[in-house]
Amino acid sequence: MSTPTATTSGRRAPLVVRAVGRLSELTGYLSALALIAATLVTSHGVFMRYVLKKPTIWQTETTIYLLMIVAFVGAAYGLKHHAHVGVDLLIEKVPTRPQLVVRLVTAVACLAVVLVVMWTAYQGWYEAYLYDHRSPTAFRFPLWIAYAILPLGMLLVALQYLAMILEGVLGLAGRLPLSEVSLLSGTSELAHVQSELELDRELHPGQGTPEETGSDDERSAR
Questions:
Q1: Where does the record place the region Disordered (predicted)?
Q2: 20 to 30 A Cα–Cα from 212, which one of 144, 153, 186, 220?
């Protein structure tokens, strides 16, 4: 596995990459707030309907829109932290630099799909805004507001992909340590857990895992 050279070990990602990373982190907090709001709105709706016997017309629709924010606006946060579903059983067996090339190609392909979705969603939003489309319910919510969530979310995802691609290119060019390239970091949850366990064993050589400790206790009892 390749290691960063002395000329690149002190270099950081470009400012634009770090700015996009902070923006993606912010989307995670916004997504969490939207989820909390959706929970509160749903609880309020249940209370009004089944306790006070006074159902309202806005809770269900509002909850749907809030969950759209959770899914689409929070997608950039998920991408940054490699939280989306992926199959990396084979690619992690490949050496670092060829692995980065494969991940770059995959990221470019995913970016293309995201841009297509963003453009298509933007057209739907523009039509809803131009003709002032409303939801076909008693709430009559302006759909251009709801339809803005998907293209906005895809824009944030596209920015995160662009930042990751730029990092990967700089890593291949030797201008950024491969350890700092997000396309290569945090891709395997199992590997992360195993590395933490190995580090814990190094720091506490006399302590084993709970299973090992339990086995030692049983032997002592015998």
A1: 198-222
A2: 186
Kindly report, residue by residue over 60-73, the tens digit of the pLDDT. Answer: 999 999 999 999 99
Work out the angle at residue 86's Cα, subtended by the Cα atoms of residues 18 and 100, and round it to the nearest 5 degrees.
Answer: 55
Dihedral (C-alpha) 154, 156, 159, 161: value to the nearest 10 degrees?
-60
Strand blocks (E) in 10-113:
none
| Residue at 153: amino acid letter | G
Q: Domain locations in the chain?
A: 15-194
What pTM, to 2 d.p., does this model score? Answer: 0.79
Contact 178, 100 (CB under 8 A): yes
Estimate to the nearest angstrom the gap between the alpha carbon of 184 and the chain centroid.
Answer: 15
Taking the C-alpha atoms of residue 88 and residue 125, their distance in angstroms, rounded to an integer, is 36
Rounded CA-CA distance 28/78 in Å is 8
Residue 211 dihedral angles phi and psi, to the nearest 5°:
-65, -45
Identify the three-state secondary structure at position 134. Answer: strand
Instruction: Decide: helix, strand or coil at residue 109.
Output: helix
